[in-house]
Structure to design on (427 residues):
């Protein structure tokens, strides 16, 4: 039995592992080599490099592999990592499947474009790896179902990378809402002010020699290489993502799902504007959601509420007794005409996070699901998918929450999933 196998089995089966304790004492502030989680990073753009830096700074993590379909990204990230850890050893891959074959890797992080999230995570579960995956959880609603099924089947751990979830402000908002201080919440207004740009009508270009374009596309429909469709501006295209809405929904709706846990979604009605050029994701988007006893209203512009315009992104809870407005770092509560930043009499009941990435590492060691686990992330992400479908079809849709299907609408139900491109259905 190898040292690595012994370590992983020990973590899974001993009482110390169940409590998330270290197996050997720390040495000079760093975990002993036998206790470090061996992690690989898949997708090395801007967010992938953030993953690398975050995890590289955790004492109980060892980064052992990097993977990207772009050799330039791969080389640049490897250089940055070795500057941070001059004595480290890291292997590089252009195909994540090769990386998953390694038995000595405990977990991976995924920061690819959205259309790759579900397949990579599911294959990682099957290979016995735990996953820290970027938001949004998946490209389609059905992919989220697939991920949850395979995670449970293979007894894996998953954390979605909505890092704001770990912030103290969100935790405090949840405590205030759950305390009933503003009464029963009947309406929540969410917004993200647009920060978009027109991509124009660019033409097809030769594929860079350093880029595996076919694999970058993967399960998405084939198209000729246009630089604007790749890397940092992929979110502007519905084949890969869903614009700013898909990018930011999980960040700000997270505080709603953590505090209220909306149930019984019934109606979805989206209206939006389109770009003038090649981009086909919505430029702006307003979506009305009707749940049991609750309305969630998403807008691209702030609601007409004092102070809202100053917040680029925000949530406004309307309760029977008062209101609460927040963004990532601030909050204001208004009750009986008086506005305060906090209500000290409401106790701190939510355990504070050790940090989103550390929470994942602790959960892997303890074999318990982290704060932004897959079951939670799937519920949080689902309305985003449905809002985009309403936008694409340009009509209000009726939803059966129990069956997770649209009512009497075959066209809308077909958009709950997408058949992968031939040769790229890997699950």
């Amino acid at each position: 039995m190898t040292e690595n196998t012994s370590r992983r089995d020990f973590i899974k089966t001993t009482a110390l592992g169940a409590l998330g304790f270290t197996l050997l004492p720390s040495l000079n502030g760093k975990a002993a080599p036998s206790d470090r989680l061996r992690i690989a990073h898949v997708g090395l753009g801007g967010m992938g490099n953030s993953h690398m830096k975050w995890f590289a700074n955790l004492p109980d993590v060892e980064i052992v592999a990097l993977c990207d379909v772009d050799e330039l990204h791969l080389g640049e990230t490897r250089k940055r990592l070795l500057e941070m850890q001059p004595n480290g050893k890291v292997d590089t891959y252009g195909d994540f499947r090769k990386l998953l074959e390694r038995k000595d890797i405990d977990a991976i992080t995924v920061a690819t474009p959205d259309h790759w999230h579900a397949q990579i995570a599911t294959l990682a579960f099957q290979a016995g790896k735990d996953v820290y995956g970027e938001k949004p959880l998946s490209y389609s609603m059905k992919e989220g179902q697939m991920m949850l099924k395979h995670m449970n089947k293979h007894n894996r751990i998953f954390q979605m990378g909505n890092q704001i979830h770990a912030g103290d402000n969100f935790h405090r908002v949840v405590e205030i809402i759950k305390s009933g201080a503003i009464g029963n919440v009947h309406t929540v207004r969410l917004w993200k002010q647009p920060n978009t740009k027109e991509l124009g009508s660019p033409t097809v270009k030769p594929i860079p020699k350093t880029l595996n374009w076919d694999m970058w596309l993967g399960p998405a429909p084939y198209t000729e290489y246009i630089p604007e469709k790749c890397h940092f501006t992929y979110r502007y295209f519905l084949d890969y993502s869903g614009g700013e809405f898909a990018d930011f929904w999980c960040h700000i709706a997270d505080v709603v799902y953590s505090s209220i846990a909306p149930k019984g979604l019934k109606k979805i009605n989206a209206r939006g504007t389109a770009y003038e050029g090649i981009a086909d994701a919505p430029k702006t988007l307003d979506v009305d959601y009707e749940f049991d006893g609750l309305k969630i209203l998403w807008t691209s512009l702030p609601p007409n509420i004092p102070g809202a315009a100053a917040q680029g992104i925000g949530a406004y809870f309307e309760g029977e007794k008062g209101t609460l407005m927040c963004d990532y770092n601030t909050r204001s509560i208004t009750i009986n005409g008086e506005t305060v930043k906090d209500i000290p009499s409401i106790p701190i009941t939510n355990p504070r996070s050790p940090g989103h990435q550390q929470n994942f590492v602790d959960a892997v060691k303890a074999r318990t699901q982290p704060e932004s686990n897959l079951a939670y992330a799937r519920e949080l992400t689902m309305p985003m998918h449905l809002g985009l479908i309403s936008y694409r079809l340009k009509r209000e849709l009726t939803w059966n929450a129990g069956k997770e299907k649209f009512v009497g609408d075959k066209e809308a139900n077909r958009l709950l999933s997408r058949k992968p491109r031939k040769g790229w259905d890997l699950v």
Observations:
- The chain has 13 helices and 16 strands.
